[in-house]
Every structure is written in C-alpha cells, then in structure tokens.
C-alpha cells in the first residue's frame, strides 16, 4: 500500500513537471512576441523617421479585438506561475527555476511596452495624483472647448445654409442656375489655403486665429448678403471666398488634441464630429425657414440674402462671446520660454526626420548586424517622440510624413467628399428641374440627409470595423 502511494505521488509530481514545461513554453512564446513587437516598432521608427509606435500602441492597446492586450497584461500568467510554484513545493527543481527565469524575462521584455503605453498617454488605473494628466485637468478650460465646438458648428451651418437657394441667387444676378456649384465650391477652395496658415498660426496661439476667423466669416457673409442689392456676382463670390479663408477647423481639431485632458478627449472628439454633422443638417434646415421677403432702407431681405444676414449676426455674436470668454492655453507661455532658451542652438532634427520618411520606404526595415540598435537605448525614445510631433512647415514636408496607407485613405476621403459635394451643390437644380420641388422641399431633403451622418458613422465605427479588416 505504501509502495502504491509512493508511485502515485511520483506520477503526480511528474504530471506537475509536465505542466511546468508547458507553462515555460507559453511564457517564452509571450516573451518572444513582446520582444519581437518591441524591436519591429523601434526599427520602423528609425528607418522611416516617423514615430509610428505611439499611434500603434494607442490604437491597439485597449481595443476589444486587439491581441496586443496579451503583451500588456500578463497578470493571469504571473498568477498561474505563482500558483504552480506553491503547488510543486520543490526548491531547486529545474522546472521551478525555468518558470522563474521565464517570468523575469517576460517582465523585463514587457517593461518597455508598458513605458510606451504610458508615453502614448494610455492612462492606467493607478495613475498617481501628481501626474501630468492632472496638471492638464487644472489648466483645462471648458468654455474654450465649447467655443471651439460652436465655431465648428457655425462654420458647417455657414457652408450649407446657402445650398437650397444658391441657384435662385445666381439666376437673380443674371447667371445660370448651375453657377451655384461655383458659389458653393469657392468656399471649400479657399479653405485649402486657410488650413495652411491656420495650422501654422495655432503653433503660437488659439485665440487670435479664432478672432481672425470670426472677422473673416462676418465680412464674407455681409458681402454675400449685399451682393443682391449691388447686383454683383463678383461681390457674391468674394464673400464666399472670405468665408472659406476664415475656416478654423484646423485650429478646432488641434485644440482638442493639445488642450483637452485625456479622460474626456474622446468625448471632445465625438463632440467635434457631432457639431460638424449637426451643422451640416441645420444649415439647409434653417434656410427652409427663411422663406420671406421685405425691405429695410433699400436693403433687400429674401430667401437668397437672409442666409448671409443671419450668419453675419451669428458670427458677430460669437466674436463677442469669444473675446470675453476664451482662455489661451498655458503651454504657449512655456513653449515661448523654451524657444527663447534654444535660440542660440537651433536644431534641424525635425526637418531631417521628416525628410527620412520617404527615403525609408525604399530601404529595408531590417538592418545589418553592424547597424543593429542596442536594446538598452530606449531612454532616447522620449526625445524622438517630441521631434516627430513637430509641425510640418510646407506642403512638401507634410506630404513626406504620409505613409502609403494614409495616402490611400486620403484619396478615398477625397473621392467621397467629391461625390457628396456634387450631390449637395446641384441638388436644388436637379430637384427643381426633374421633380418641381420648391426651396422648402429641398431644404428638408438636405437636412434629413445631413442627419444620417451620425448614425452611419456610429454603425461603421462601432460595428462594421470590428467585423472586417480596414482594407
């Protein structure tokens, strides 16, 4: 009987050892993935001159369908290892030593990934009270965020409020109804140029670009409204171009990314998208209510000019609200002090790193043994990240920052916007010619069309992208 018990204990111990060997294989497998991912991201960043690691870790770490969580969170594996160690109770056993070594190696391999997660602003549950994100909470100004979102909303209303009546306006000025496409599109063309100087301007201030934007939009809408009494299509187009030159959407986006704390940044970004979609729907809808005509001091107010008058008043009120309520972010003062300290030693690393991106596309990702990076060189990653986020100074430098995948996405986005703008610009002409719709019917149709943007984005963003690969 004693012999049977001894053999059973021996067999049980061997079974535990076999479990330990499987556990070692699993730990080594996770360690291999963590090490491989770390080295691939480091080599990618070096060869392409672009800090892709931040984006990759940020977008994958907390995604419900991402396998990166297996690299970040090994609490279960460590717990299993500790339980196995307690069950075997054999000090000095080779399997125990192998398990402990594998656990230590995995912890070392993933420590850099944890650092990358924190560096990419992935907030952990045990973030200390004195962290940098809490400093952002103190300097965060809710009213300034609201002013940015209102600017986004008003601009989209301004863009689409003239769509139902632009064809009638062009006819009243002696032009063809199809000229409405030029009237509507001129604002978007001017926006291409405004996005450049507003992006550069936002490196130094947010308040002044928003003030300039409001003044330009007020002036542009005023000219748009006066063009009817002046009987000038040129004044009408100048007014729309001024509106496009006042587009501060680049400032609105950057304010959210730079000045809003991480814990509400997602909500703020959703607010930006919602404000744009609601403005796109409210613009034509508001035009449907402006079906009246009267004259005050030789100034004509009708369905064609009222959108200009209404938006002029709206931008004037917004300018007053902005002037008294907006708070400039504190980091501009700190950045100015740092820039003054660096005037004696200008750096060209940002330009060089941007120029390396396109060159990296033609070079192998894996380096030779003489060029391999030292695994202990992660201390320089913080400086590399700062240089990779420096603003582009020209169209050429901005283009070089784009990877082929991003270029394809931008092309697709351009084609979608192209098709949508054709539909919107000529909707009043087509519906009048083929279906005899009046202005109110066109306005309701476009408002309903604009209201479909949010639910479609929610379905695609929350469900479809989780079922299928992006490509």
Describe the structure.
Residues 372-391 are annotated as: Disordered. This is SPX domain-containing protein. Residues 1-58 form the SPX domain. This protein has 471 residues and is mostly helical. The chain folds into two domains: 2-123; 138-329 and 393-467, Growth Hormone, Chain: A (Up-down Bundle). Helices cover 74% and strands 1% of the residues. A two-stranded antiparallel sheet has the order 1-2. Helix 1 packs parallel to helix 5 and helix 8 crosses helix 9. The longest helix has 47 residues, at 2-48. Residues 111-135, 369-379 and 381-389 have low confidence and may be disordered.
In which range does the helix fraction lie? over 70%
Could you say what the CATH architecture of the largest domain is? Up-down Bundle
Shape: elongated
Mean pLDDT: 75
CATH superfamily of the largest domain: MFS general substrate transporter like domains
Helix and strand succession?
Answer: HHHHHHHHHHHHHEEHHHHHHHHH
In the CATH scheme, the class of the largest domain would be Mainly Alpha
Number of domains: 2
Main sheet strand line-up = 1-2
> Would you identify the regions where 5 or more consecutive residues have pLDDT less than 50?
111-135, 369-379, 381-389
